[in-house]
Amino acid sequence: MFLETEFSATPVQLEAGDTLFLYTDGLSEASNESSEYGVDRVMTLVHQHAARQPAELIDACLDDVRAFTNGAPNFDDMTVLAPSALRLSGFVPRCRLWVVMVNCWGDVAVGVPSKIGR
What we know:
Layout: E1 19-24, H1 25-28, H2 39-48, H3 54-69, E2 80-81, E3 96-105, E4 108-117
Parallel strand pairs: 1-3
Antiparallel strand pairs: 1-2, 3-4
């Protein structure tokens, strides 16, 4: 399918306290009667909740998209992950938050990171 397509790679060095927010296009393409949720709304929401723990960030995102769609059925999968880099001893406050929308075609996952925070 994509044998002749070249994809670039962007290395991201996660440090203790960093979080990587990953989502599929099913989130940004969720819709209500008149519009799509959209990438801008995802980015705004993540900015607003960047200081939260990963599970709270995911909950806030899913709550917002549920309210936006008002129970309308989704026609695409919706996946949200927020792995966080930990330090072996002690609490580390969040340093940076990276946001990546992941599109999957067959066995190929493509995403571009955007840094939020320091």
